[in-house]
Every structure is written in structure tokens, then in C-alpha cells.
């Protein structure tokens, strides 16, 4: 009963824990995806490989035409040929200016979305993550306090077996912890992938679009060091420094502990079922003996008190004692199996409680520490991005 209550408490903790992590572990990139799509489409149109290639070919063609024009002037070609080359150069120059201005217009719109929509949404996301990890820290800390408080829970000396229901709960707990580990890993991987993708795009976004033409295109000034740059660079660096492996190892180790308990319970449950089978076998043999003994005594009474209606000619064994001896052998085997089962049940309960007492506080302490590191990281990011007046409390 003690183990069942303890395991039930732990299972309840873990179910709530997993439900929380399932909500958290949706791809982080879903946050702000509408804004990202709005600036990603014009960005791809501007920076797509086909556009780049066309622009480069036009510039090369222009440079060739300019070189040809200089060569023709130097060698004194016909005026008609020279004017034709000049017209081609002028046409390419005009096209290049128009394309560059169109590109500048698109880039300006991208940067406007980047600074006025994407950046504020990322600040809001950082704010939400700071609050989320603060709540997770309080949650894990509360779990640690509760589990630590019941570590002194004593096991009653009366041995109690592992029921099928209890064994099912332990298997469920193992599966929950395994999924928790998977969801945690997914959450951290999604965060890293999201920030890496944003940083990769930002590096392309900050590359200046230059013209090698002598007549510079009148482009609007571009912000070389926008606020989003500091946020994303710091976000990436601090994510890489988080002790993620420590938290992952803590969850995985606890899953292995629960799996070991499941294996111990499997052995006990199998032995209990063997006892039940032996008990049914004994009951069946006793019933068969009673039925046989009644018929045997009736035949013996009909033949005479000293007659043995089932005795072989060569020997005179007592069939009653022979069948009673077979029943006694089953009874002895049942007592041995029941004794073994009771001893094993006690060992399983003691080992299970010892493992839970040792590893549960360790698990929640590590997760509370990790949640604190994450909260501190996001709180610092938010302070740096939004200013000290909006600092997240807690």
C-alpha cells in the first residue's frame, strides 16, 4: 500500500509534468510565423539565386560593353558603331539603376518588417519564455520540496504484493518519463533550430548591396547594427551555453530507474501468477481426490473392509495414501512458492522505494536548476532588448 501511494503520487506528478511539456514542445518557430512569412517572401524574391544571377549577368554585360566602348574610342572606330555601343551601355545602365532601386525598395520593406514587426514579436517571445521558465522553476522546486518531505516515509513491516493495477501504473510512469525526455529534447532542439535559422537569415539581410558602377545608385541608408542583431546573437550564444545535457541526463536516468523497477515487478508478478496457477492445481487435485475417494470407499465397502479394489496383483500399495502424498507434494510446492513470492515482494517494495527516494529529489533538483538557468537567460535577454523598466519579475 505504501509503495502504491508513493507511486501514485509520482505518476500524478509526471502526468501533469508531461502535459505541461507537450504544450511547450510545439515547434518554437510557430511563434511569430505570420510575420516571418511576410518578410520571408519578399526576401526570397530579392535574394533568390535567380535574381542574383540575373543581376550579376547584367553587371558583367555592362562592364563588357563599357570595355568595348573604351576600346572602340581608342582605336577610332566608325561613329555609327560607337554610337550603337554607347546606346547599349546607356540602356544597360538604366536597367541596372531601375533594378537596384527596385531591390532597394524591397529591402527597405523587409527591414521595416524586421524592425517594426519581427523584432517586437521576438521581444514578446523572449518575455513569454522568461515567464514560462519562471513558472517551471517554481513548479519543479515545489515538486522537489514535496518529494524531499516524504523521503522519510517508512515502509510498513507487513509485506504487500505488487498488484496488476500497481504494475500497470509503474509501466505507465516509465512511458510518461520516456516521453517527457523526448519532448524536452524536442523543445530545446526546436529553440536552437529557430534561432540558428533567424541568425542565418539576418547575416544575409545585413550584407550590403553594392554597385560597381561609377554613377552610384541613390539607395536609402541601411542600418548596419539593428537591435534584432544583438538580440539574436546573444540568444544564440546563451542557448549554446545552457546545461541541456545535464537536464536530459537527469530525465533519462530516472526513466532507466523506473524501467528497472518495472523489471523487478515483472519478476514478482510472474511468480505471483505461478503461485495462483499452483493454487488452482491444488484445488483441482483435491476436488478430484474427494470424488475418487468417495467412489473408492463405496466399492471397498461392497467388496469388504480388507479388499483393495484398485490394488495390482504384484503389489499391495494403498491408493489413498498414494494420492494424498501427491496432493501433499503440491501443497509443499505451493508453500515454497508463496514464501519466495512474499520475500521477493518485500525486496521489490524496498528497492523501489529506495530508488524513488534517491532519484526523484535528484531529478526535480536538476530540473529546477535548469529552469532557473533558462529563466535567468531569457530575463537577461529581455532586459537587454526592452530596457530595465520592463524586467520580468521572479
TrEMBL record:
Annotated coiled-coil segments of the chain: 254-281
Superkingdom in the source lineage: Eukaryota
Record has Coiled coil as a keyword: yes
Keywords: Coiled coil
Keyword Coiled coil: yes
DUF632 domain ranges (all copies): 53-259
The name this protein goes by in its record: DUF632 domain-containing protein
Taxonomic lineage: Eukaryota, Viridiplantae, Streptophyta, Embryophyta, Tracheophyta
Amino acid at each position: 500500500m505504501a509503495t502504491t501511494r508513493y507511486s501514485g503520487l509520482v505518476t500524478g506528478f509526471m502526468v501533469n509534468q508531461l502535459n505541461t511539456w507537450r504544450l511547450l514542445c510545439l515547434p518554437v518557430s510557430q511563434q511569430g510565423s505570420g510575420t516571418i512569412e511576410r518578410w520571408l517572401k519578399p526576401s526570397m524574391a530579392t535574394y533568390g539565386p535567380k535574381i542574383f544571377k540575373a543581376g550579376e549577368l547584367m553587371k558583367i554585360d555592362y562592364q563588357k560593353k563599357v570595355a568595348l566602348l573604351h576600346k572602340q574610342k581608342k582605336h577610332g572606330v566608325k561613329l555609327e558603331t560607337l554610337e550603337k555601343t554607347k546606346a547599349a551601355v546607356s540602356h544597360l545602365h538604366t536597367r541596372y539603376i531601375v533594378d537596384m532601386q527596385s531591390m532597394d525598395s524591397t529591402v527597405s520593406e523587409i527591414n521595416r518588417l524586421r524592425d517594426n514587426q519581427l523584432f517586437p514579436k521576438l521581444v514578446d517571445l523572449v518575455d513569454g519564455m522568461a515567464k514560462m521558465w519562471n513558472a517551471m522553476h517554481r513548479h519543479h522546486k515545489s515538486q522537489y520540496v514535496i518529494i524531499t518531505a516524504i523521503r522519510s516515509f517508512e515502509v510498513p513491516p507487513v509485506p504487500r504484493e505488487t498488484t496488476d493495477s500497481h504494475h500497470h501504473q509503474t509501466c505507465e510512469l516509465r512511458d510518461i518519463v520516456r516521453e517527457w525526455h523526448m519532448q524536452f529534447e524536442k523543445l530545446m532542439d526546436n529553440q536552437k533550430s529557430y534561432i540558428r535559422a533567424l541568425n542565418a537569415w539576418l547575416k544575409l539581410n545585413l550584407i550590403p548591396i553594392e554597385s560597381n558602377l561609377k554613377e552610384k545608385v541613390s539607395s536609402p541608408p541601411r542600418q548596419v547594427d539593428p537591435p534584432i542583431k544583438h538580440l539574436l546573437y546573444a540568444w544564440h550564444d546563451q542557448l549554446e551555453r545552457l546545461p541541456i545535457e545535464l537536464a536530459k541526463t537527469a530525465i533519462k536516468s530516472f526513466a532507466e530507474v523506473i524501467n528497472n523497477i518495472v523489471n523487478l515487478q515483472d519478476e514478482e508478478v510472474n511468480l505471483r501468477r505461478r503461485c495462483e496457477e499452483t493454487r488452482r492445481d491444488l484445488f483441482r487435485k483435491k476436488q478430484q481426490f474427494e470424488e475418487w475417494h468417495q467412489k473408492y470407499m463405496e466399492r471397498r465397502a461392497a467388496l469388504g473392509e480388507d479388499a483393495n479394489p484398485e490394488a495390482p496383483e504384484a503389489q499391495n500399495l494403498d491408493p489413498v495414501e498414494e494420492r494424498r502424498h501427491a496432493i501433499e507434494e503440491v501443497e509443499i510446492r505451493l508453500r515454497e512458492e508463496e514464501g519466495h513470492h512474499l520475500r521477493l515482494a518485500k525486496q521489490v517494495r524496498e528497492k523501489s522505494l529506495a530508488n524513488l527516494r534517491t532519484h526523484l529529489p535528484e531529478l526535480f533538483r536538476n530540473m529546477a536548476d535548469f529552469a532557473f538557468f533558462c529563466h535567468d537567460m531569457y530575463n537577461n535577454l529581455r532586459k537587454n532588448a526592452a530596457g530595465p523598466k520592463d524586467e520580468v519579475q521572479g
